[in-house]
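Fold sample X.
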Amino acid sequence: MKRTIIEIDEAACTGCGLCAQACHEGAIAIIDGKAKLIRDDYCDGLGNCLPVCPVDAIRFIEREAAAYDEEAVKKAKLERLTEEAVRGVQAAKKPGDTITKFDLYTADLSGRPDSAAKRAAFLEKLRFPAHMSANALLDALNLLYTREEFLALFEDGT
């Protein structure tokens, strides 16, 4: 479909990144020191990036381009936020703050006759896949929680 979309003059671009920060849809990224429109379907054509460019390297054009896909943009934003949250938890962890198999055992989530049922209830509470193994659960918990946060989940009556 023919529509209004941005075009970036790579020769004029200084790679400052202001346009990428201004683009709420994530359509622009800095690649090899230059701003690039990475997904036509992420560009809504509103041009939040235009006024922030200090060298006027961005303009509107009419061309064949994929339609703006709001659902794809929302999904990509959620993925970025999830990645940022995981990085934040990992950055906050200190030595000794890792959840261990022994922690799963003492929480009755692994290694006991009724562990599978208790693990299933715990997985449901966290909205994790229902048939996650103890090892997969341990990996996921260590990505998302500190040991202290994990233990607090059981203080809440789990």
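Fold sample Y, listed below.
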Amino acid sequence: MYQRKIDPKAEPMPMSGAMMNHKGDIFHGEWSDWVDECKNQETTKLWEWWEQANEQCGLGQRPVLHIRKNHQKPVSVVWTEDYFDLREENIDLKEEIKRLEKELYENFKNTIRPITKEDQVRGLKKRGENGRVSRSRRPSK
């Protein structure tokens, strides 16, 4: 239905999840925390499909029901608890990124020495009046 960066190895499940050890409509490889049930129909049987998605979950797996109909964007259904867990995790990851960026900036700032007047004068002496290195000082090819 929809492939993104989340799991580039994901592919449609042969026989639509009817295999013994792999349930759901999307094959993620050996193991996944999520079991995806995909429906592409004009009439919606939400509770029937949601029950099917739940029945396909193994121990520790969470169901996701993806529903699509013609000329409409797909909709995904998850448990409310899973939704809020994902939002919390997203917030935590964004905070960790900000913390790491700040730490990186502080480390960078502490390793770079400010330019002094002496550095500026030394730089001007190496350059001509127009700011370019004179021909006599250019390295030969």
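Sample Y note: The chain has a mean pLDDT of 79.
Also: Residues 82-125 form one domain.
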